[in-house]
Amino acid sequence: MRRRERQARIADMIWQQGEMSVDALAQAFEVSAETIRRDLAGLASDGVLQKVHGGARRPKLHAEGSFKDRMAEEAEAKQVIAGRLVPLIEPGDTLFIDTGSTTLACAEALAGIGGLTVITNSLRIARVFGAAPQPGRVYLLGGTFMGDNDQTVGPLVIEQIRDFQADHAILTVAAIDAEVGAMDSNFDEAQVARAMIGNARSLILVAARAKFGRKAAFRVCGLDEVDTVVTDAPPGAIHEAALRAAGAELI
């Protein structure tokens, strides 16, 4: 059995059982314990599982901290992502942009592009584009206001999104899994993201390498719905292969 095939089967077994020891896996696959340890190290590096003493376990669902905390996390990665996103957007484009610390960094980089039409549920992102040197049009979606991250959510936001059509939906998520796809840890934010995807010609996910291999509670979309993923570093062989198979471009 080839290494990649064995690793995929190991991942399936651990996800089904929750946790397995090195010895049990070595016996199941009739290989040495050292071979299994190398397999587990590779899978853990890709974020597929979590290593524990003597084995590995299924990772817990990811829960995000406060917006203030997230602003301080992966700051350099967000700047790299923002720089890589800019060439994908043309003057005059219409954009959906959802709330997030990564999309806020992207908004600051995109604000220099003239003539954009931006539809967002983020007060902070609306302010960035409103103060741009060549402001286009900014539509701030109204709904239930959440003060922690200055965003609006809920049925009113979803209803308004349906009145717009965009060239691109630029979204950030809490987690990306090779099989499940993109996920969020907040139900309302996942609903907003899904609505934006439904009314955009293309979907661009902006996510740091650290988000790959995680799982969160609420599914946003499958990888086959994604056109482009912009990240700061290679997400690992498993996720790169999954994105290629889904037809998504990785930048």
From TrEMBL:
The keyword DNA-binding applies. Residues 3-58 form the HTH deoR-type domain. Keywords: DNA-binding, Plasmid, Transcription, Transcription regulation. One of its GO terms (molecular function) is DNA binding. Pfam families: DeoRC, HTH_DeoR. Transmembrane segments: none annotated. PROSITE patterns: HTH_DEOR_1 (PS00894), HTH_DEOR_2 (PS51000). The keyword Transferase does not apply. This is Transcriptional regulator. It comes from Tistrella mobilis (strain KA081020-065).
